[in-house]
């Protein structure tokens, strides 16, 4: 614990005999003397009426102003002669102790002394008694005793010393109280605090953080009756941009930073950042480099990846397998993903438009982590351009895109594909269907092949061929669901099946 200075209320030794304390009875008992001790002139109050039988001699201090004191400490330095030094002393009434008293009051009573106002603090007994041989050799045994009294509530108080027949010399009476000193601990300032009156309890004192420090839990120390700080609670920590130096918070030097409230120190700016100014919580990124919201300030700034490498498109009939290699430069990050977009162009007209919703990807074309994807449902006699974009966590903050493309022409001889099948009419035993193919491809179609089956038994199916783009499916069961697929036939072979469609006949008796 950190001990305190004391506040002295009375120091008899420093008064050099000018205090003029009250003795009772007057002219008897206690007397002020001068003596030389260690070549210094000292004053003392002494009493030594051991040869005169029963004694009751009082020595009372002047009125002492209490001030802020709640508990006072009384330090006594004294000598006591051995009763055996006085063989005929008072018929056995010789004592080797004296009593210490105190009385509180709001006013100074002057010379008015009343014993009943005083309360006993303790009987003071010496640890060492001065025997006759020591006294003759001027080798007196000095005793030091300390007592305390509290709580005090009046404006001031008196002390009194009661002699009942001893040979005592009081060389020093020092009265003081204790304070816990003003202190900075755990980056918090605590004011000077008067020690409490009760030796068993601690006074909680709240501290205030030093400049540029903050507290998660309010800092507190506890001041005990002996003027010691104990039991620290909480602490203050330097805020972002500041580090602790002793009991102060100092700004991070230029070129360093500290990101959060902590006990840690400032760190050098990471790679790809600009030198930070003083007191920085983060270092700004170089031009072209960025920091994502989830990136810690101590990590380097990063940039978007370079474009994907070696984009290839391999045609597989009405499908394309698209492959690429990772970027040569991932931008300093490990969260690279890919997005694939598609554009289709018709050579005859030069018309181009996005393929969105027309083609089908084997997996969602955005946020891909792999380096290949298969694209199906492509139309014949159409040019497709696939663009692969590499992205990472800082791509949204850059205006540049990292893209690479590949173009492929779908097999010109593949028959057209039926894109949709519609229900035009139905009865309990038949379904009337129609479908579409791209207009420019219709002249190449020789016939259409319709495959249908009951939904509950898809393994048993029927096939019907027709020349137009509509058909009636006969001899069906009432109130039954059928699944239907249509494909185009040309001189070059079968085209891809249309998507599977489901239609239901009417219940029997309904038309």
From TrEMBL:
It is an enzyme of class 2 (transferase). One of its GO terms (cellular component) is dendrite. Keywords: Angiogenesis, ATP-binding, Cell adhesion, Cell membrane, Glycoprotein, Kinase, Membrane, Nucleotide-binding, Receptor, Repeat, Signal, Transferase, Transmembrane, Transmembrane helix, Tyrosine-protein kinase, Ubl conjugation. One of its GO terms (molecular function) is ATP binding. Residues 6-185 form the Eph LBD domain. CDD domains: EphR_LBD_A2, FN3. InterPro entries: EphA2_rcpt_lig-bd (IPR034263), Ephrin_rcpt_lig-bd_dom (IPR001090), Ephrin_rcpt_TKs (IPR050449), FN3_dom (IPR003961), FN3_sf (IPR036116), Galactose-bd-like_sf (IPR008979), Growth_fac_rcpt_cys_sf (IPR009030), Ig-like_fold (IPR013783). It is found in: Cell membrane. Residues 304-411, 412-508 form the Fibronectin type-III domain. One of its GO terms (biological process) is angiogenesis. Its EC number is 2.7.10.1. It catalyses: L-tyrosyl-[protein] + ATP = O-phospho-L-tyrosyl-[protein] + ADP + H(+). It is a single-pass type I membrane protein. This is receptor protein-tyrosine kinase. It comes from Tichodroma muraria. The lineage of its organism: Eukaryota, Metazoa, Chordata, Craniata, Vertebrata.
């Amino acid at each position: 614990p950190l001990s305190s200075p004391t506040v002295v209320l009375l120091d008899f030794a420093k008064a050099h005999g000018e205090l003029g304390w009250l003795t009772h009875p007057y002219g008897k008992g206690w007397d002020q003397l001068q003596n030389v001790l260690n070549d210094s002139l000292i004053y003392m109050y002494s009493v030594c009426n051991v040869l005169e039988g029963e004694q009751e001699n009082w020595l009372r201090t002047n009125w002492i102003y209490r001030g802020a004191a709640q508990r006072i400490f009384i330090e006594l330095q004294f000598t006591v002669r051995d009763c055996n030094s006085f063989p005929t002393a008072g018929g056995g009434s010789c004592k080797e102790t004296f009593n210490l008293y105190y009385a509180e009051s709001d006013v100074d009573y002057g010379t008015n002394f009343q014993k009943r106002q005083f309360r006993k603090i303790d009987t003071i007994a010496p640890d060492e008694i001065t025997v006759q041989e020591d006294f003759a050799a001027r080798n007196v045994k000095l005793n030091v005793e300390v007592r305390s009294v509290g709580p005090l509530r009046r404006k001031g108080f008196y002390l009194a010393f009661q002699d009942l027949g001893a040979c005592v010399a009081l060389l020093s009476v020092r009265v003081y109280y204790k304070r816990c000193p003003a202190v900075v601990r755990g980056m918090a300032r605590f004011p000077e605090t008067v020690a409490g009156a009760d030796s068993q309890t601690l006074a909680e004192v709240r501290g205030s953080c030093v400049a540029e420090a903050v507290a998660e839990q309010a800092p507190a120390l506890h001041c005990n009756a002996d003027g010691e700080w104990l039991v620290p609670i909480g602490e203050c920590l330097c805020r972002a941009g500041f580090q602790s130096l002793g009991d102060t918070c100092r700004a991070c030097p230029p070129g360093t930073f500290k990101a959060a409230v902590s006990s840690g120190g400032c760190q050098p700016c990471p790679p790809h950042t600009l030198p930070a100014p003083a007191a920085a919580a983060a270092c700004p990124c170089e031009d072209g480099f960025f920091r994502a919201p989830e990136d810690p300030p101590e990590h380097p700034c990063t940039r978007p990846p370079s474009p994907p490498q070696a984009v290839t498109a391999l045609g597989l009939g009405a499908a394309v397998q698209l492959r690429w290699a990772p970027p040569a430069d991932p931008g300093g990050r490990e969260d690279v993903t890919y997005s694939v977009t598609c554009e289709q162009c018709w050579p005859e007209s030069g018309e181009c438009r996005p393929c969105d919703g027309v083609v089908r990807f084997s997996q969602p074309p955005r946020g891909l982590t792999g380096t290949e994807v298969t694209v199906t449902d492509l139309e014949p006699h159409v040019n497709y351009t696939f663009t692969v974009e590499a992205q990472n966590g800082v791509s949204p903050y850059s205006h540049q895109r990292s893209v690479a493309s590949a173009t492929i022409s779908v097999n010109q001889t593949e028959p057209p594909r039926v894109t949709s099948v519609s229900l035009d009419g139905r009865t309990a035993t038949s379904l009337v269907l129609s479908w579409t193919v791209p207009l420019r491809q219709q002249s190449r179609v020789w016939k259409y092949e319709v495959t249908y089956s009951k939904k509950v038994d898809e393994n048993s199916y029927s096939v019907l061929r027709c020349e137009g783009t509509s058909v009636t499916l006969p001899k069906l069961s009432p109130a039954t669901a059928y699944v239907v697929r249509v494909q185009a036939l040309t001189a070059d072979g079968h085209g891809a099946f249309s998507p599977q469609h489901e239609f239901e006949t009417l219940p029997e008796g309904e038309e």
